[in-house]
Amino acid sequence: MADETTPHGAALSILRMIAFSEGKNLNFSSENAGAPTREWLLWTYAQCLQIGVTPKDVSSVLGWPSPISRVTKA
């Protein structure tokens, strides 16, 4: 049987691994302790999706700024 993983599915799996390794809570329960921000989720998923679409671009994607460093102060 052929591998049927899509780039989007791979990106979601990678996102979950990164979240786990960084101590981010992705459990969608009533508690949000340790939950990532919306910006962290979207930015990290975008990085993961880019890797899923073009795996050879890992080094350039690793050069993207961290979602934490992109947060601006009001």
Radius of gyration: 14 Å
Number of strands: 0
**For the terminal residues, how far apart are their CA atoms?**
53 Å
| Largest sheet composition | none
What are the segments in which pLDDT stays under 50 over at least 5 consecutive residues? none
Quick one: overall form? globular
Structural class: mainly alpha
Question: What are the secondary-structure elements, in order, as H or E?
Answer: HHH
- How many individual helices? 3
Q: Tell me the helix content.
A: 40-55%
Average pLDDT rating: 81
Into which percentage range does the β-strand content fall?
A: under 5%
Short account of what is shown:
The protein is mostly helical.
Summarize the structure in words.
It is a single chain. The longest helix is centred in the middle third of the chain and has 16 residues, at about 40-55. The chain has a domain at about 40-74. Helices cover about 50% and strands about 0% of the residues. Helix 1 (about 5-20) crosses helix 2 (about 40-55). It is built from three helices and no strands. The radius of gyration is 14 Å and the shape is globular. The model has no long low-confidence stretch (mean pLDDT about 80). By secondary structure, it is mainly α.
